[in-house]
Amino acid sequence: MIRIQKKKWLNLGVTLIISASLFASSVTDVYAKSEETKPLAKEEIYKERKILYDQISAVSGVPWYYLAAIDQYERTMTKAHPKDRAHEERLTGVFFEPQLWSGILNPDSLDRNPLSIEVFGGYGLDGTGDNIADPNNDYDVLYSMARITSKYGLSSDDLGIALWEYYQNSRSVQRIQQFARIYKHFDTLDLAQHAFPLPIGNSYSYRSTWGTSRSWGGRRIHEGTDLFAPHGYPVRSTCYGVIEIKGWNPFGGWRVGIRDLDNHYHYYAHLSGFDKSVHVGSLVTPGQTIGWVGSSGYGKPGTQGKFPPHLHYGIYRDSGLTEWSFDPYPSLRQWENDEYRARKAKKNSKK
């Protein structure tokens, strides 16, 4: 088991300070240019983030994909709780509450002095060598989070224990570990692409049905969009993600649940069967076949035919403690149109 000693952190911190000063100036230049012209392109953001993750990883020993996973999880929590986690625009999404950054017993909740922060047991560290522990500095916050994460060592179990101790929430640890697997496998941050859940064409129909009433099994609202298609029509993953659930549900019949990097849970129900590559824990890509349209559900395992064949597709957002559904129809329309445009562009390029 690898142990991170304080001396090692101090020695390697010198390397971080040197690289941080160079990186910080380049990032400042990039943002300055973007303010003069247009917002920073996604590709450039991914590039700058990867540089940051690699540099913090070199210092801390925490794999870059774990740092990326923590940062992305934190970003999704800010989207779910924007008022409680408001912070300045920056590359990283890691957020520390002022009291945790400066120390619970610190009389100055806005303390930026690394020495006094350490005295009061705060998490804030100086990652750039400017003698300031700034909770809005990309290097400082990620350096501090890396220190927290590597508290017990660098094995996956050690990282998991440290993350649980920090978040006190097994869901948080699970999400970060899922995200880390995705980033490690695909070896890139650029994983925001999506696909329509059915092969595009004229063999299906759908409209916005989210929020309408349902009565089987008790009164409830419809938490998704129904896409009607022939029995056996392929059902595809809409995203990069990890299969979280596969099997039977009395309401949804044969169903699959996929977690993506936006911390959205994609729910595919009433399937007639699963692709042989689909297993709990499997990683999937946009457009990958995961099953086929059916009419399963509303009864014991194997119940079929109580309604016309269709795919029930839902999306749920994780708030950290609970999940709630939101209307997937706008996303479906966008993904469908994007695929049509991509197909048209490809066709025109061959002329």
From TrEMBL:
Keywords: Signal. This is M23 family metallopeptidase. Residues 221-318 form the M23ase beta-sheet core domain. It comes from Paenibacillus shunpengii. Residues 1-24 form the signal peptide. It comes from the Bacteria. InterPro entries: Cell_wall_metabolism_enzyme (IPR050570), Dup_hybrid_motif (IPR011055), M23ase_b-sheet_dom (IPR016047).
